[in-house]
């Protein structure tokens, strides 16, 4: 039977995933979140903490509770939890009584804030949160693309964002040059749990691509540098020539086997120098994303097959074949 790499793969516990945009949370919580098919509560006590969604007493949702004196208090009978998950108070028993060991919650191993997002590793992570130096570079201006939840797996979305052969077809209405079909030779370089590739191809010039022009448009040769950081975070560095460099970041939250929430950013030199507004990039990237989403959501299986015989690969697909190798390596962690 074919094995599939899906959003609920148990080995994903050992990697970092974004679970919320801090600006969207509106406060310390508690907030409900869903990751790898399970429900959790996200709350900021002494620091951000991710705990199981259900109180161990009568399984009330801890997201209905409140923060009292730096602890999370359950709304039902007032049990209180520290950010470590330790149950520190059960009001209905006198203070000399023992708190049962099963009253304590298992907190996520690591929670951090980076790129305006809350990142979670349920178990001790094997890799760091992806590094993107342009984030702190004044030469790049930021466009925050609103978070979106797609009916696809994170691995499928990474597969799509790394794909070098689909531009003239899926993206004919935006970036795709219909006269540039053949994918030239390129190398993929693996570096531990990451890999990258540089790809040269023809694309519509930025302003024609943004206008959605399909009849008359100018093209130019651009260089795209792809990087994928395990498990399935993608970075694209695009050299737009005179229009400056553009870095696109795609961070994926594997919500459950049917859904992935994508947190995406455009970092652009032409925002920093005032030639474009963040809104221009948000509108354009949202349209490019819509083209991908429309296709991806039609795939019946919400995963990437781990058996190489299920799909057919060509030399144009080297980069997405490497993704499958990384996914296979992640799969081995849990076997
Ligand atoms: S259900 Fe949470 S304290 Fe009882
Ligand atoms: Fe695409």
Q: What's the CATH class of the largest domain, please?
A: Alpha Beta
- Which H/E pattern describes the elements? EEHEEEEEEEEEEHHEEHEEEEHHEH
Question: Per CATH, which architecture of the largest domain?
Answer: Alpha-Beta Complex
- Judged by helices, strands and strand pairing, the structural class is alpha+beta
Q: Which small-molecule ligands are present, each listed once?
A: FE2/S2 (inorganic) cluster, fe (ii) ion
CATH topology of the largest domain: Naphthalene 1,2-dioxygenase Alpha Subunit, Chain A, domain 1
Which superfamily, in CATH terms, is the homologous superfamily of the largest domain? Naphthalene 1,2-dioxygenase Alpha Subunit, Chain A, domain 1
Cα-based radius of gyration, to the nearest Å: 22 Å
The biggest beta sheet reads: 7 strands, antiparallel
Number of helices: 7
**Average of the residue pLDDT scores:** 95
Pick out the low-confidence regions: none
Strand order of the largest sheet: 12-18-17-16-15-14-13
Indicate the topology.
Blueprint: E1 4-5, E2 17-21, H1 22-25, E3 31-35, E4 38-44, E5 48-52, E6 66-68, E7 71-73, E8 80-81, E9 87-89, E10 110-114, E11 117-121, E12 141-150, H2 154-162, H3 167-170, E13 188-191, E14 194-204, H4 206-211, E15 219-229, E16 233-239, E17 245-256, E18 259-268, H5 269-272, H6 278-296, E19 304-305, H7 318-333
Antiparallel strand pairs: 1-19, 2-11, 3-4, 4-5, 6-7, 7-8, 8-9, 10-11, 12-18, 13-14, 14-15, 15-16, 16-17, 17-18
Helix pairs in contact: 2-7
The structure holds FE2/S2 (inorganic) cluster and fe (ii) ion.
């Amino acid at each position: 039977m074919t094995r599939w790499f899906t959003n609920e793969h148990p080995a994903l516990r050992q990697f970092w995933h974004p679970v919320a945009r801090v600006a969207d949370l509106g406060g310390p919580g508690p907030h409900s979140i869903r990751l790898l098919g399970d429900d959790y509560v996200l709350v900021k006590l002494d620091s951000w903490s991710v705990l199981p969604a259900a109180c161990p007493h009568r399984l009330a949702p801890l997201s209905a509770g409140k923060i009292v004196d730096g602890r999370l208090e359950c709304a039902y009978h007032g049990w209180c939890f520290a950010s470590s998950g330790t149950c520190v108070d059960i009001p209905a028993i006198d203070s000399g009584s023992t708190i049962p060991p099963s009253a304590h919650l298992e907190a996520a191993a690591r929670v951090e804030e980076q790129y305006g997002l809350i990142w979670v590793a349920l178990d001790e992570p094997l890799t760091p949160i992806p590094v993107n130096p342009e984030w702190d570079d004044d030469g790049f201006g930021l466009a925050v693309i609103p978070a979106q939840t797609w009916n696809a797996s994170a691995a499928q979305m990474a597969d799509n964002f790394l794909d070098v052969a689909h531009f003239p077809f899926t993206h004919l209405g935006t970036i795709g040059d219909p006269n540039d079909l053949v994918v030239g030779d390129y190398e993929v370089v693996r570096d531990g749990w990451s890999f990258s590739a540089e790809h040269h191809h023809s694309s519509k010039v930025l302003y024609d691509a943004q206008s959605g022009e399909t009849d008359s448009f100018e093209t130019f040769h651009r260089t795209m540098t792809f990087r994928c950081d395990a498990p399935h975070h993608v970075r694209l560095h695009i050299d737009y020539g005179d229009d400056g460099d553009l870095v696109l970041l795609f961070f994926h939250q594997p919500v459950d086997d049917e859904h992935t929430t994508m947190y995406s950013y455009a970092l652009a030199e032409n925002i920093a120098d005032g030639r474009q507004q963040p809104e221009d990039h948000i509108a354009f990237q949202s349209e490019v994303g819509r083209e991908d989403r429309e296709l991806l959501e039609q795939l019946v299986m919400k995963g990437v097959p781990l058996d190489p015989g299920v799909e057919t690969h060509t030399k144009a697909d080297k980069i997405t074949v490497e993704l499958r190798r990384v996914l296979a390596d992640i799969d081995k962690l849990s076997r």
